[in-house]
């Protein structure tokens, strides 16, 4: 305390001067007084200093004898008073000083506290900053480590990767030098200790640094490693884990999305997404689909950005890449056999198959899967579509799938070019597919191939034998004659076409046949067109999707994959696709499901839109027609085109202004699943003329309650349809007048209303009948009777000539002289002429 005032020594320094005391008195300066007090203490025990007049004066105040000479009493008194005043001031000053000292001490304490608090704050801030800096440092160190590693790679000094690996890969020692493993070990220990507490971990971090410094070099590495470790420990202690590194994505959402796929796209856990949906009150599983609005909410909740995409965008996942010429490999041609009925298409296909099936033993069990492959003598592979006729060809084309590379037009040599031959020519030309003419039944005695050739000329088919460019081969499906030549001709044509595909990509193909097999579920024969279809592939096919469970080739053998132009039966579909549907392999099940459901909805919309007219006139005409005209939709399948057309014409004639037959679809060939599907969609019966439904169509028709009717006489068919259409005619309502009555009197009866006293003039009055009120032969009301009374009794009938009381239901305006007409209605069934 005594040394607290730094001013004191200064005061003392000035004190010994004798003048200073006086001066100080006169001015009343506290400092001077202090000085004097000290001096007094020092001076008094000795004696007044020779030069200090005032000091000696004070000492002698109480003793006049010791008073210096020349000092009067008054002077002495004055001095004494001054001395007392000085003493009092001194005491005051001492108190004040003590007080000041106390205040100062308080102030100091306060400042100390302040500083301490500030320091504490500073420390904390520093700690936070340090944490940040450490993070930055860590990143920098990582980058440096990378850079060093790159350098190290160059200079063959493999030191740089060590810290990074030590951190990432954990215990694995990554430095070849000896301290490496030791350090890694130490770090491992440190890591263990980190779990015990944060403080601890810091210390261990420092230790690691020291240790590292003691080791040979590697200062930077150790520092970086330590910082990473500290960062890791910090994250661990804070329990934030990877949070700081969370990334946010643009998440594409279609109209609907399956929860698991949504989670996938956000890179979140599906369970978390389900949880978040539950919080919103939506109880869904991860396999259920949610709409885009909900999906958007979820995405935003997770902090990502939602990108709405239009429905059709889901199809974009299907690879549309074009292949480099270098990746393309020659593939087998795909051949369709067409021709008029009975010209030998089936026989030819069978003959080719029996003689040349690939790898098949002669007489071995062959499987009809809709297509098969044969090998020519020269070793070329050919793929034949096993569904002869135009139906398959056209239905595929209608779906935009061109499978066929070459058409073999079969014309019987004993016959001529027939309607279906011409049709086949048109189809092939329309599809721009090259043709080879097979003149069949050459073994027959009446065979006249030249006639066939000349006939074809009329249809602009100039065969090679006639110096044209269309190959023609004389064959006999029965004897096998010329079959090899036909195959060679096909192989040659294929060579000209230079058919190529890339087998090393995700497969795409076309469905040739599909059915619902009782044991195996939906089965589709797919002709792979590009890429290689493998077991386990996830695909979408038309409106269906699936995962390849098994692939079965045309020999009935299970195979693991099928390349371009190879037909295979595919198992593992979730539904039966249609012939002509395109199969595409996609990456994920969710994508497949999404595309399939999009297509299904689109098809539904299309069906709904198909009925919608476009122009206003059409719209009005349709509205009018819809309001008054009943339609009987039918689907016609016939054995030949000619009969199909005849049936369609006959059916279109049926009907009048009120009812008509609408042909949904007509075609040639067996009734298939797709026919049943179409019939079901329109609630139509299927008419089979000389054709039958295949097994799967029969089955699905049963399931879907689609009526299939078979006919072999057009007349019967038309009659039946006429009867069915008649059933749609509205019944005719005929009225019979059963009586008339005249009102003679009217009464108003409370509770019963207006009652008319009438006389039945004609026929009969019946209570249940309809009544009209005629006034001057004008109908003024039509309704029913409320009461029919005869002498107060309610009766059912009143005969002519009798009087009765009548009241109308909800009608009061009855007057004397009005005539009541009584009639009955009858519904009459009508028929079409
Ligand atoms: P598709 O209706 O065009 O499939 O004709 P098919 O293959 O069913 O044959 C019709 C008929 O012609 C059958 O009775 C066959 O036996 C017969 N046929 C087919 N090809 C030949 C042939 O090359 N020679 C003879 N003689 N008859 C044949």
From the alpha-carbon coordinates, what is the Rg to the nearest angstrom? 56 Å
Task: Report the major sheet.
Answer: 6 strands, mixed
Q: What are the distinct ligands in this entry? A: guanosine-5'-diphosphate
Poorly predicted ranges:
1-9, 11-20, 34-62, 156-181, 192-206, 215-220, 359-364, 610-616
**Overall shape:** flat
Relative helix content: 40-55%
CATH architecture of the domain at 328-501, by name, is 3-Layer(aba) Sandwich
Summed over residues and divided by their number, the pLDDT gives a mean of: 77
CATH class of the domain at 328-501: Alpha Beta
Q: Structural class given helices, strands, pairing? A: alpha+beta
Main-sheet strand order equals 7-8-6-9-10-11
Number of helices: 23
Termini separation comes to: 135 Å
Q: Strand percentage, roughly?
A: 15-25%
Give the tally of β-strands: 33
CATH fold annotation of the domain at 328-501: Rossmann fold
CATH superfamily of the domain at 328-501: P-loop containing nucleotide triphosphate hydrolases
Write a structural description.
This protein has 833 residues and is an alpha+beta fold. Among the domains are: 73-107; 250-309, no CATH class; 328-501, P-loop containing nucleotide triphosphate hydrolases (Rossmann fold); 508-608, Elongation Factor Tu (Ef-tu), domain 3; 614-726, Translation initiation factor IF- 2, domain 3 (Rossmann fold); 732-828, Elongation Factor Tu (Ef-tu), domain 3, CATH 2.40.30.10. It is built from 23 helices and 33 strands. The strands form eight sheets. It has a six-stranded mixed β-sheet with strand order 7-8-6-9-10-11. Helix 3 (30-46) crosses helix 5 and helix 7 (179-194) runs antiparallel to helix 8 (198-214). The longest helix has 83 residues, at 73-155. The chain is flat. Mean pLDDT is 77; it is low at 1-9, 11-20, 34-62, 156-181, 192-206, 215-220, 359-364 and 610-616. The structure holds guanosine-5'-diphosphate. Residues 339, 341-347, 388, 440-441, 443-444, 476-478 line the site of guanosine-5'-diphosphate (GDP).
